[in-house]
Design goal:
Elements lengths: L3 E3 L2 E3 L4 E6 L2 E10 L3 H19 L3 H17 L1 H12 L3 H23 L4 E4 L5 E9 L2 E5 L7 H12 L3 E5 L5 H13 L7 E3 L4 H10 L5 E5 L2 H11 L5 E5 L4 E5 L5 H13 L9 E7 H17 L18 H16 L3 E4 L16 E6 L14 E7 L2 H9 L6 E5 L3 H10 L4 E4 L19 E2 L9 H4 E9 L2
Parallel strand pairs: 7-8, 7-10, 8-9, 10-11, 12-13, 12-17, 13-16, 15-16, 17-18
Antiparallel strand pairs: 1-2, 3-4, 5-6, 6-20, 11-19, 14-15
Helix pairs in contact: 1-7, 2-4, 2-6, 3-4, 3-6, 4-5, 9-10
Length: 477
């Protein structure tokens, strides 16, 4: 049984969580010690005790630790990618790419540790100097999802440590393997005892204990809307900082003047790769009339050619859904859409392979309208719907007609429409002629409306969440 990391020590318990391979449900990746309330409180206490000293640590120490971690992640990207593919179901090239991104994130924030800066400004009062600096928030609770089991933890943990915070990290129960590997790397990279702690367990126990503890000064959460709302309400009494990323219902607009091949690439990659299990996935394909039929036919043909199977097989394009619950949810949404009048143009059926896994053929639903549930709620699977519109103005209106606001894309050769869409799309990230899913690690990530709350993640903008601004006045005598 793999232990947890608490206060610089590896801690085990009497209960374990089996890590099941969704490509082969009879393959148990490993068993990981499960934390309860007591272990979680122990981790919080360790982080609180370590916080004052770590807050005063020097930038070189933080840089060196994060750099060592980033270097090891990149050096082991094949091995760690295989682990990720095995436990989460991403095809191996995508899994290796995710690991590489995690390593790059650590190297970026290693450099950021040396680039921390403030301002020295003149006061409006003679003889007084003003300094504006940033200080760590304190103890940061990190609650990560299962769909990017090493990249999302990396883009939360690396800046937290970079800016002098201590961490209590709760990974998703479905993917403890990547989290354990990351904890082991950070431990050996020299993170002082208590500065980084990892506890694996159910949200109802571990997550709730974190929410209930006043020693947690900030929480960075990625997950569902419902859980995000609970994080927010539980944090209000403590006036703690919160950062919430809660999904999307992302539109990809395809205009009549679009390059058809590129539009199909953007739609298929954005909607169905990573098994559609991305909060930035293109789940609504909004297509103008003149190109609609050609686009739908081309997408259906491309889906028919995709190979569905074991994530570790070199020929596989699309791996399994993460577990039986998610598979059932995907099937339910397809059935609901059809009952409301949608046409299942491609896919949507279970796929049998040599191993027993959660394989679903990517589903393309056509003849849908904006008020159908399939166009209102996040499915989080390889399911996309097509909405036919008259022109750009209707496409923009439909694209913005959602409570979500994470990512939006447009395929067009018109500079006029591209520029207008970039300005008027009600989202945090806009993509022109590239898939809605797929972002760089050195620039801000996040949305608006019900998708996100709080400061942006990633890049130098991460400092807004993980630090507190201090203004100091000094009179010269």
């Amino acid at each position: 049984m793999k232990p947890m990391l608490i206060g610089g020590e590896w801690v085990t318990t009497s209960h374990g969580i089996e890590n099941i391979n969704p490509s082969d449900i009879h393959d148990i990746v490993d068993v990981y010690a499960q934390a309860g309330r007591a272990e979680t409180q122990q981790a919080i206490a360790a982080a609180a005790a370590a916080a004052p000293k770590w807050a005063l640590s020097g930038p070189q120490e933080r840089h060196d630790i994060l750099h060592r971690a980033g270097d090891e992640i990149l050096a082991r990207k094949q091995e760690l990618g295989e682990l990720l593919a095995r436990e989460e179901g991403k095809v191996l090239p995508e899994a290796i790419g995710e690991v590489a991104r995690a390593g790059q994130i650590f190297l970026f924030f290693a450099a950021e540790a040396l680039r921390q800066r403030g301002d020295v400004v003149a006061s409006v009062r003679p003889g007084v100097g003003v300094e504006v600096t940033r200080e760590p928030v304190g103890v940061v609770g990190i609650i990560a999802p299962w769909n990017f089991p090493i990249a999302i933890p990396a883009w939360k943990i690396a800046p937290a440590l970079c800016y002098g915070n201590t961490v209590v990290f709760k990974p998703a129960e479905l993917v403890p393997g990547s989290a354990w590997a990351l904890a082991d790397i950070l431990h050996r990279a020299g993170v002082p005892a208590g500065v980084f702690n990892m506890v694996v367990g159910p949200g109802s126990v571990v997550g709730q204990t974190m929410l209930d503890d006043p020693r947690i000064d900030a929480i960075s959460f990625t997950g569902s809307q419902a859980t995000g709302a609970r994080v927010a309400s539980a944090s209000l009494p403590f006036l703690r900082k919160i950062q919430l990323e809660m999904g999307g219902k992302n539109p990809l607009v395809v205009l009549d003047d679009a390059d058809l091949d590129n539009a199909v690439f953007c739609a298929v990659n954005g909607a169905f790769f990573s098994t559609g299990q991305r909060c930035t996935a293109s789940s609504r394909l909004i297509v103008t009339e003149a190109i609609h039929d050609r686009f739908v036919s081309a997408v259906a043909d491309r889906l028919a050619a995709l190979r569905i199977g074991h994530a570790m097989n070199a020929e596989t394009d699309i791996g399994p859904v993460v577990d039986a619950t998610q598979l059932a949810q995907n099937q339910d949404y397809i059935a609901i859409a059809r009952s409301q009048g949608a046409h299942l143009r491609a896919g949507g059926d279970l796929v049998r392979r040599e191993t027993e896994g959660y394989f679903l053929a990517p589903a393309l639903l056509t003849e849908t309208v904006p008020d159908m549930r399939i166009n209102r709620e996040e499915v989080f699977g390889p399911v996309a719907s097509v909405i036919r519109v008259r022109d750009y103005e209707e496409a923009l209106s439909v694209a913005n007609d959602t409570e979500f606001g994470l990512s939006a894309g447009i395929c067009t050769t018109s500079l006029k429409y591209a520029s207008d869409f970039k300005r008027k799309a009600q989202v945090g990230m806009v993509m022109v002629n590239v898939p809605t899913a797929g972002v760089d690690y050195h620039v801000p990530f996040g949305g608006r409306k019900s998708s996100s709350y709080g400061a942006r993640e990633q890049g130098s903008y991460a400092a807004e969440f993980f630090t507190i601004v201090k203004t100091a006045y000094t009179a010269a005598y």
